[in-house]
Write a structure and sequence with these properties.
Length: about 220
C-alpha cells in the first residue's frame, strides 16, 4: 500500500505542464519526478510510451495505479533524477521542488518524523529528508534539483526532443537559461501562470542547433 501523504498532489503547476503535453502519440515520454503521475498518465492516454520516474517509491506506485485507473500503461521507475534512466526521450517533463528552503519556514524536526534532518548555512536553515518535504524543498535558491536536471537532461533528450520544466521567479529564470546554454541547450519561457504566491514559468529546453561548419 502506498503512502499518499508523501506524494506531491496535483496542483497548479501540474496543470501548467499538462497544457503543454501535445503531439506525443508514438513518442517516448519521460515524466521525471512524476509525483502524483497525472502528467505521465495523460501522456499515455494520448498514445505516448511513458516512463514515470521518481526518487520516492510511493510516488512511482501511485503513478502506476493512476495510469491503471485511467486504462493506460506506464513504466514505473524508482530513480534519483536520471540515475536509473536509460535511453533517449522525445519529451521529458520535470516539475521540480522549486521553493527555496527558507520559504518552507521549517522550525525543527517533527516529533514523530522518522527521517533524518539537519541545519545548514549561516542562517542555520532547517531541512528534512522526509519525502513530503523533499517534494517542495529546492535548496537555497530553489535550484538544487533543477540544476542537476539541466546537467543531465541533454544525455537523455532525443536530437529533436524537448524538455519542459517548471520554475518560479525565486529560481532566477534568466540565470537558469544561461546555465542551460552552457550545457548545449537552448531555452525559452513558453507559458506562465499566476499562482496564489508566485508566478509559475514553463521553460522549454532543446538541443542547440549545430551550424553547418560545426558538423563533423
Amino acid at each position: 500500500m502506498t503512502d499518499q501523504s508523501t506524494v506531491y498532489p496535483p496542483s497548479r503547476d501540474t496543470y501548467v505542464l499538462l497544457g503543454a503535453v501535445t503531439d506525443v502519440e508514438g513518442r517516448r515520454f519521460l515524466d521525471l519526478g512524476c509525483g502524483n503521475g497525472l502528467v505521465g498518465a495523460y501522456a499515455a492516454a494520448m498514445g505516448a510510451d511513458v516512463v514515470c520516474a521518481d526518487v520516492n517509491p510511493d510516488a512511482v506506485a501511485h503513478a502506476s495505479a493512476r495510469a491503471e485507473d485511467m486504462g493506460v500503461v506506464v513504466t514505473g521507475l524508482v530513480s534519483d533524477l536520471f540515475g536509473r534512466v536509460e535511453g533517449l526521450f522525445d519529451v521529458i517533463t520535470f516539475n521540480p521542488p522549486y521553493l527555496p528552503t527558507s520559504r518552507l519556514n521549517l522550525k525543527g524536526p517533527c516529533a514523530t518524523c522518522q527521517w533524518p534532518s539537519w541545519e545548514e548555512g549561516p542562517a542555520r536553515t532547517f531541512r528534512c529528508r522526509s519525502p513530503k518535504w523533499l517534494a517542495y524543498d529546492g535548496g537555497r535558491k530553489g535550484r538544487e534539483l533543477t540544476d542537476r536536471f539541466i546537467e543531465g537532461v541533454g544525455r537523455h533528450l532525443a536530437p529533436e526532443g524537448r524538455a519542459l520544466l517548471i520554475a518560479i521567479a525565486d529560481n532566477d529564470v534568466p540565470d537558469l537559461l544561461r546555465t542551460a546554454s552552457g550545457r548545449g541547450l537552448t531555452g525559452k519561457i513558453v507559458d506562465e501562470c499566476e499562482a496564489p504566491d508566485e508566478t509559475l514559468f514553463l521553460v522549454e529546453l532543446r538541443h542547440k542547433k549545430r551550424r553547418f561548419w560545426q558538423r563533423a
